[in-house]
Design brief:
This protein is mostly helical. The chain contains 9 helices and 4 strands. It has a single domain, classed as Orthogonal Bundle (yeast vps74-n-term truncation variant fold), CATH 1.10.3630.10. It is 56% helix and 7% strand. The termini are far apart.
Length: 217
């Protein structure tokens, strides 16, 4: 089973194996948010509007998550979720993204290929060679948006994260997103995973939106 970081990275890959065009640093913020959401689902962190705290510093077994967990646990400074998202987006997002790509390559979902760019630089691409996981993720998202059923908590979190970071337009048309907007807003309000966990996910999502609102277009 892919974690949220791997799913977000996979959704960011286009048919040519390149990253989809998104607003500057949106990718970094989406990866940072996915890391924190994965840690919240793993019961490693908790949040409120003022601070993010580690409630269990034991490793999760995933290098892409444990690096961030170790950084947060070792910090002597208490930071808000938005401050941690900004910090992780700056210092951790690119290495975590690369680890997610490596994991997807090792799983046989992507392959790695390189091409000379301007006869000097090598531009790496990651074409999808096994699209079953990608189709499954998109099918889950579509299934949640088109249904009134209570969704799986991770699926709801993935949709809210993808929406906050501007990934959904790469999956659906503008008309489809507009039609699904009431359902997306409904997902934000559902108490899916208990009051504490739901609050943590919502706070992470709000922090991403706030952080990205200050980014240049």
């Amino acid at each position: 089973m892919l974690n949220l970081v791997e799913e977000i990275v996979l959704l960011m890959i286009d048919d040519e194996g390149s990253f989809i065009p998104v607003r500057d640093t949106a990718f970094d913020h989406s990866v940072a948010g996915a890391v924190l959401m994965d840690l919240a689902f793993a019961n490693r962190i908790d949040t409120d509007s003022d601070r993010l705290t580690v409630i269990d510093s034991s490793p999760t077994g995933s290098a892409m998550l444990d690096s961030a967990l170790s950084l947060i646990a070792s910090s002597e400074e208490t930071r808000s979720p938005s401050a941690w998202i900004a910090a992780l987006a700056t210092d951790e997002a690119r290495p975590v993204r690369d680890m997610a790509l490596d994991s997807l390559v090792e799983r046989g979902i992507l392959e790695r290929s390189g091409a000379k760019f301007l006869w000097v630089f090598e531009r790496l691409r990651h074409p999808i060679v096994d699209d079953r996981e990608e189709r499954a993720v998109k099918r889950r998202i579509a299934g949640v948006l088109l249904s009134d059923d209570i969704p799986d908590p991770r699926d709801a979190a993935l949709i809210c994260l993808a929406d906050a970071c501007g990934v959904l337009p790469a999956i659906f048309s503008v008309q489809e997103i507009e039609k699904a907007r009431p359902r997306i807003e409904q997902l934000r309000k559902l108490d899916l995973i208990g009051r504490e966990m739901s609050g943590a996910i919502e706070e992470i999502e709000r922090s991403i939106i706030v952080a990205m609102s200050y980014m240049p277009h």
